[in-house]
What we know:
Layout: H1 2-7, H2 9-12, H3 17-46, H4 52-60, H5 64-71, H6 81-87, H7 91-98, H8 108-113, H9 125-141, H10 144-157, E1 159-164, E2 177-181, H11 187-198, E3 202-207, H12 211-221, H13 230-277, E4 287-291, E5 298-303, E6 309-315, H14 324-338, E7 342-346, H15 351-365, E8 370-374, H16 379-383, H17 386-391, H18 397-410, H19 412-416, H20 426-432, H21 435-445
Parallel strand pairs: 4-7, 7-8
Antiparallel strand pairs: 1-2, 1-3, 4-5, 5-6
Helix pairs in contact: 3-5, 5-10, 6-9, 7-9, 9-13, 10-12, 10-13, 11-13, 12-13, 13-21, 14-15
Amino acid sequence: IPFIARYRKEVTGSLDDEQLRALEDRLNYLRGLEKRKEEVHKAILEQGKMTPEIEEALADAKILAEVEDIYRPFKQKKKTRASVAREKGLLPLAELLLEQKETYEKTIEAHAADFIDEEKGVGTEKEALAGAMDIIAEIISDDADYRRDIRALTTEHAFLSVKQAKDEDSVYAMYYDYSEKIKNVPPHRTLAINRGEKEEFLKVSVDISKDIPLNYLLARVVTNPKSAAFAYIVSAMVDSYDRLIAPSIEREIRSTLFDDASEGAIKLFSENLKNLLMASPLKGKTVLGYDPGFRTGCKLAVVDKTGMVLDTAVIYPTKPHEKISESKRIVASLIRKYNIDVVAIGNGTASAESEMFIAETLAELKVNTKYIIVSEAGASVYSASKQGAEEFPDFDVTQRSAVSIARRLQDPLAELVKIDPKSIGVGQYQHDMKEARLDEALSGVV
C-alpha cells in the first residue's frame, strides 16, 4: 500500500492510502469468495449432484452467505430430526405430501399408515406424518432462495430488542428496555449491546412480525391451497421457520452487525489515532502544562523549548476549593517568570472549568500567551508507569501528568509513544474486536 500510494499515482489516479486499503479489503473478500465458490463447486461435484442451475447460482452469488445457502443441502449434517426420519424410510411420504395434489388415491392418514414399521420405530400414522413433516421442514430450510429472501426481509423489517437480564443497575441501564430497527442501529450501540450481553446484563433478540416471513414462504411453498396435504405443508413450513430458519438468520444478522460495527470502529479508531499521533508539533515554545482536576486540584508544569521541566505547581481554582485568587496569582507568576508562550490544558475532568479560568486569567494579565486544549489520554497512566518514574524520580504522579500534557503539545508523537496503547483507547477495542483486526488498524496507522 505505501509503495503504490507513493510511486504508482499515475496508475491509480492518485488514490490515497485509505482508499487503497479499502480496495485491498474488498479484493481480499472477493478472493475469499471465489475460493469458497471453488470449494463448494468441487464438493457438490464429488457428490455427483451438480446441476446447471446450481452452477449458475454459485456464479451469481455476491456474498459468502449466499454461497453457504447453496451448499447447505449438500453439507454433511449432524443427526437431525429429518435425517432420523429419512433413516426410517419416510422420505417417499414427504415427497407425496409435497406433490400437493387436490385429491389423493386415499386419505393422507391412510397413505401414512403404509409407512408404519415397528422395526424402524414408526408405530402410528401420526409418527409417520411427523417424520415426513420434519423432512419437509428441512427441505424448506435448505432452499437457498428462501434463505436469501428471508434474510433480506428480516434485515429490512426486524428490530433489535434488548431486555434486562439481571435485577441490578449497570452501565447498560439505558438498554434495559430498548428496541430499534436493525437497519438503524448505529455501530457503537451494537458493540455496547454485545458487551452487555457478554457480561450477562442484557438479553438480546432479533424480533420480526412472523407474518412477514411466513406470508413469503406461504406464497412460495404452497402450490395448491385446496390440496388435502395443505394443513401438513403449512405446519411443516411454520416449524421450518421457527426451528431452523429464524434462529440461523438471527445468528447471521447479529454476526453481520458485529462485523460491520467492528470494521467501522477500527477505521474510526485508526483515523483518530493517526490524528492524535501525527498532530503537528509546536516547536520553539515554552509551554505550561495544565492537568485539570477537582478535589485534588489542577497540576501545573513549565516545560522549556527543549522539553526540559523548569517548574511545577498545584492550584485549586475549581470546586470544592475554589481558591481562584490564589490560583490566578500562581499562574500569573509562572507566566511572567518563564515567558510562557502557550498553556496546554488537558481535556479530562474539569477541563471546561479550567479553560474558563485560564481564559479569564490571560485576559486580566493582558499578555500574548495563548491556550489550547490537548488530549490527555494516557497521561495518568504514563505518570504512574515505570518509565515515568525513571524519567522524573523526584516528581509525584500528578506532576508527571502535567509534564506529559505540556510535552505532547510540543511533540505529540515523541510523547505518546511512551504510553501503553491500551490507555489511549485501544483497550476497549480489544474488548470488542479480534486482536488481529486491531493489529491491522495499528499497522495501517504505522
